Amino acid sequence: MKLKAAKNIGIIAKHIVLPSSTNEIELLGILSHLNLDPHVHGVIVQMPLDCVNSINSNLITDSVFPNKDVDGLNSRNQGKVAVGDLATGFLPCTPSGCLELVKRSGTKIEGSHTVVIGRSRIVGTPVSELFKWHNATVTTCHSKTKNLDEVVANADILVVAIGQPNLIKGEWIKKGAVVIDCGITSIPDATRKSGSRLVGDVDFEQARKRASWITPVPGGVGPMTVVMLMKNIVLAAVKAARTL
Ligand code: NAD
């Protein structure tokens, strides 16, 4: 999807496929080469790493130069988001896609109660930060949160990123809430030719009866993530051109 989107808008994108036997030193060497190549404006390392060796994924994301970190996963860029600098770095793609979807729905974020379920480095944590800096009052939930249904029931905006199919029940959702479902899990489905289908973390069929806006899975947050990645790459190229 990322390669296709890039081609459609004239970005030259190269997919470097490494063997699963690649080790940390080798991966760092490749990143170092890409970091120093002036023809390369953006670098992403597809996570999770599909590798037989143990590789520190935080070290890898921190090894992409911040000015080429179009995934927005380097600690420098993440730190900027955490302290409310949303302009000088790169916003992480899935979280900024969630924000854009809510903005485009016309929902007022300022003053809303936004509940984010999940606190991962890639999705939940930066989603919480982004909504906080858009003046929402944010509650962040995670695997140890008690009475999740009661917290969800108070959400004007609900963003879910947990990776547990249909965990969030439709009846928990406040009438008129905006629901953004980041989850993508493949579950068995004998009625499909492939034998499986993708589902989100929210029970879509029940939730859609209560939500004012809700993202489907697939076809919601996923494509938005790709769009935000393209936006970051264009931004990276513009920034690089300005430093020439
Ligand atoms: P993760 O496993 O890193 O984090 C999951 C989070 O959910 C954790 O913070 C955990 O505390 C919380 N959690 C787990 N069980 C819970 C429960 N029962 N109640 C409350 N919280 C619970 O996952 P991730 O990388 O954040 O991804 C989450 C989902 O989003 C996955 O399905 C993933 O495939 C999907 N995802 C989609 C995109 C996209 O582009 N659409 C991008 C990244 C991730």
TrEMBL record:
Residues 1-71 form the Tetrahydrofolate dehydrogenase/cyclohydrolase catalytic domain. InterPro entries: Aminoacid_DH-like_N_sf, NAD(P)-bd_dom_sf, THF_DH/CycHdrlase, THF_DH/CycHdrlase_cat_dom, THF_DH/CycHdrlase_CS, THF_DH/CycHdrlase_NAD-bd_dom. Keywords: Hydrolase, Multifunctional enzyme, NADP, One-carbon metabolism, Oxidoreductase. SUPFAM superfamilies: Aminoacid dehydrogenase-like, N-terminal domain, NAD(P)-binding Rossmann-fold domains. CDD domains: NAD_bind_m-THF_DH_Cyclohyd. It catalyses: (6R)-5,10-methenyltetrahydrofolate + H2O = (6R)-10-formyltetrahydrofolate + H(+). Residues 92-239 form the Tetrahydrofolate dehydrogenase/cyclohydrolase NAD(P)-binding domain. Pathway: One-carbon metabolism; tetrahydrofolate interconversion. This is Methenyltetrahydrofolate cyclohydrolase. It comes from Daphnia magna. The lineage of its organism: Eukaryota, Metazoa, Ecdysozoa, Arthropoda, Crustacea.
